[in-house]
Amino acid sequence: xxxxxxxxxxxxxxxxxxxxxxxxxxxxxxxxxxxxxxxxxxxxxxxxxxxxxxxxxxxxxxxxxxxxxxxxxxxxxxxxxx
Length: 82
Known about the structure:
Layout: H1 4-19, H2 21-33, H3 38-45, H4 51-72
Helix pairs in contact: 1-2
C-alpha cells in the first residue's frame, strides 16, 4: 500500500500529464469549490453502457495515450560535432 503523500503526488502527476499544469490546478479548485457527489457521479458515469463498451473505450484510451507518451519521450536528434 502506498502512502497518502505518494497518492497525492501520483494524482497530481496524472492530472498535470493529462490536463497540463494550469488546467490541473483549475480542476482541483473546481473540486474544492463546488459541491460534488462522487458516488452519484460514478453511478451516472457509464449509465447505459455495457462492460464490453466500457472496456473497449478504456483500451482505446490506453493505446492512444501510450502512443503519445512514447512519442513525447524521444529526444530530438542533435548534430555531432566533428
